[in-house]
Amino acid sequence: MNDLFLRACRGEAVERLPVWLMRQAGRYLPEYRAVREKADFLTLCRTPELAAEVTLQPVRILGVDAAILFADILLPLEAMGAELQFVKGDGPSFPNPVRTREDVARLRDPDVDETLGYVFDAMRLVRRELEGRIPVIGFGGTPWTLAAYLVEGGGSKHFDKLLAWSYADPEGLGVLLDRIADVSIAYLNRQVDAGAQALQLFDTWGGLLDLDRWRALALPPLRKIVQGIAGRVPLIYYVNGGGHLLEGMKELPVDVLSVDWRQPLSRVRQVVGSRTLQGNFDPAALLGPIPGIERRARQVIEEGRGGGHIMNLGHGILPMTPVENAKAFVNAVQSTPAPPLPA
Ligand code: CP3
Prior knowledge:
This protein has 15 helices and 9 strands. By secondary structure, the chain is an alpha/beta fold. It has a single domain (4-334), classed as TIM Barrel, CATH 3.20.20. Helix 8 (143-152) crosses helix 10. Coproporphyrinogen III is lined by residues 22-27, 36, 41, 68, 70-74, 91-92, 139, 155, 202, 204, 240, 316.
């Protein structure tokens, strides 16, 4: 078994860095687009055989060191009773957004086996098909990021509904965040029962908050989730646009901190120390010529010196990325020795 990824999560020495790509199963792959011709996005998520198939595509095509289950962070909100649609070209939409304490009270506390069992089935299929060759990552969104979509009713330019609520009635919004945390704990634990060997929490919109407000609003439900996983598998916390949150992130007892590309890993290390980092290759750099990709990959490896490091992008791979460029990135990492860990 290639256990580079799990060893790096635990801060152990590795010969070379493990590498995988956020959104590695996705539209940049012609093989993914072919499956999507036959099924819309939510059907794909709800059909374990198809979800398992697209999960394994980047494993076969790119040779990454970890698989991430194909699903979406928004699925547990649907399980809580919020109708979810994916409109072609427009992304996710919640036609009945949650904006008041009364709306929160109407949400369900779902039985995750009944409502999200298809995710666990897909996980079991992936584990069976991989036969232990590489580890499989399960995932969820953070309460703050999930609430961002649920309150806005989808993606948003200003997140004004969410932010207005956070200033007008932080306790009321806190009730929503806490309920999402409880569902997430059940959902993530069942992913582990089904075979997830690590878990990643995606905080796509954590960077909207300043450090004090991140500590007050986003951190309590996050801590609750970390406690609810109880160290069963390594946990990765990813935040986008969170360079100003590093001091707070440092206090979160997770195994791996995953950051975007906006500042070099050497600067991140100055704040968080030798904790295992994940990232932070600029996804847009995969659009440039291959020699530049290879050079930059080695540069990011060098920047990460001083602690564990899992190579990844700073955010999801862009849909227009040429597959050869993604392959060149993976190959460059896999042919470069890891810098030694500090003594
Ligand atoms: O990484 C993987 O390969 C595993 C699968 C995965 C998807 N979404 C599949 C997907 C993962 C881990 C996610 C996480 C996710 N979903 C996040 C957090 C990561 C991030 O990018 O910050 C967020 C915010 C979502 C919500 C979501 N899902 C949005 C906003 C969209 C539409 C925007 C877009 O990229 O199209 C989705 C759709 C989605 N989720 C697609 C995929 C492959 C594209 C859907 C399609 O095939 O048309």
